[in-house]
Amino acid sequence: MTDSRPWRGVLVATALPLNDDLSVDYDAYAEHCAWLVANGCDGVVPNGSLGEYQVLTPEERTRVVETAVAAIGGGRVMPGVAAYGSAEARRWAEQAGGAGCGAVMLLPPNAYRADERSVLAHYAEVARAGLPVVAYNNPIDTKVDLVPELLAQLHGEGHIQGVKEFSGDVRRAYRIAELAPELDLLIGADDVALELALAGAKGWVAGYPNALPAACAELYRAAVAGDLATAEPLYRQLHPLLRWDSKVEFVQAIKLSMDLAGRHGGDCRPPRVPLLPAQEAAVRAATEKALAAGLA
């Protein structure tokens, strides 16, 4: 990628293929990264929550990043570097830089409900690693809310260059643009992709392209271009799947859709458990409908 802002475009929060014994299938992961780029995506975000980073060993987490870089080039790879401690998160950012990555994505402190001073100190510490940092606002799971005012302060102090916005509150896009016009807004939840694209998003850290990359890439490009004649019907077709990205079982759902689309989805590591029969039936029906509509 030639853009000096490698967090722009469709970046897939990659699911991680596991073997039957739940060890990481690195060859399948390399192939998956290359396949996503070949099908219209701009890059990948390894070691996000969709990549089950919390249940990887440090050795696995390191190798996942190196595998992605070897497959598609470091300019297309923006690893998640979340950790309980700021020093550990900074070490992950340094590892990403050493592997050749162009940027990193960072949650706020998430072992406890951090106050604003802690959040600022956390981002300042990780920014010292020297790579551009994209904040990840997920108040649903972390209980720490990077509100627009706090994002503007983080950006003003040079700690972040973008934000993956997962709150689901589309109104924030306009407030962020007012307070920090140079801060890049990235779509963080698949089921508000159209709304945030129209509100000026510069990228999409996306889950469902793991199963349907070409259709999701087409949706994003039409939406940011204001081509509603293309984007709106496609969004309606995809939405029964996209909404799973905001549910607790998003990893299992996306992996099931991948299996149905002929990809390597497979199982998750504990404590994640398989979908309930009704959930599986809903994901299966929505995926099969999308495949029948030619969206694969």
From TrEMBL:
Keywords: Lyase. The keyword Transferase does not apply. Belongs to the DapA family. It comes from the Bacteria. Pfam families: DHDPS. This is Dihydrodipicolinate synthase family protein. InterPro entries: Aldolase_TIM, DapA-like. The lineage of its organism: Bacteria, Bacillati, Actinomycetota, Actinomycetes, Kitasatosporales.
